Amino acid sequence: MEGNNIERRAIVENWLPRYTGMPLDEFGNLVLLTNFYNYVERFSERFDSEIYGIGGPMQASTNSKGITIVNFGIGSPNAATIMDLLSAVKPDAVLFLGKCGGLKSSVHVGDFVLPIAAIRGEGTGLDYYPFEVPALPSFRLHNFVAEEIVARNRDYRTGVVYTTNRRVWEWDEDFKKYLKFIRVIGIDMETATLFLVGHFNEIPRGALLLVSDTPMFPDGIKTEEKDREVTKQFTDLHLEIGIATMETLSRKGEKVKHLRY
């Protein structure tokens, strides 16, 4: 068993710089994850920090306060990969700044969702735990995120999100009926995997999801034009809340790992 642990650590220590282009000693103790390169660009512009991994599968940047941002790509397998690789540096907290589709009439484009759990519809998590193990965030981290949202006079939603491997499902009426039946608030492709693999690697984790579309309604399906408008209106605030959360954690020196393993 000890030999296997050593071998795994050697792999992730080698592969995290390989995938991101950033040396291990450049990673901070607090990590923001995103699916979008422009988030990394805006982070870099704000802090005048170097971007590593341009042209590679992932990009990363770390500011002078020890906060790192990583664009890991899209989808459940990539989510599992980055959470496995981050075990090489054992961050104190990881916060996913992702987007989701809003599935209820009370949820609108531009709303923020703090998931209390995620349903494992993606399948990747089965390589880590059986279905009986829930995909949950570290709730202490979400408390800090909520405080930053409220401080900006913004509302947020809580609820369960559904994570799927299916990118194109909007035409599938049976699947849409299923989503209504299980009463989930949103749908995405990464959150459950990030929560579950974070749990596997003993990494405190959370997700702040921006509602980018409302795919249950015919005029709410995401298009390139609509996504561009969402990015223009809400990206800066989304990123600002994530950065502020990590700065607060750094300043207070609090740990958000709420379980002892």
Topology (SSEs and partners):
Blueprint: H1 2-20, E1 30-34, H2 37-47, E2 59-62, E3 67-71, H3 76-85, E4 93-102, E5 112-121, H4 139-151, E6 157-164, H5 173-182, E7 186-188, H6 191-200, E8 205-213, H7 224-252
Parallel strand pairs: 1-3, 1-4, 4-8, 5-6, 6-7
Antiparallel strand pairs: 2-3, 4-7, 5-8
Helix pairs in contact: 3-6, 4-7
Write structural notes for this entry.
There is one protein chain. With 261 residues, this protein is of the alpha/beta class. The protein has a single domain (2-252), classed as Rossmann fold (3-Layer(aba) Sandwich). The protein has helices at residues 2-20, 37-47, 76-85, 139-151, 173-182, 191-200, 224-252, and strands spanning 30-34, 59-62, 67-71, 93-102, 112-121, 157-164, 186-188, 205-213. The chain starts with a helix and ends in a 9-residue tail after the last helix. The model has no long low-confidence stretch (mean pLDDT 94).
Question: Quick recap of the structure?
Answer:
With 261 residues, the protein is an alpha/beta fold. It is 39% helix and 21% strand.
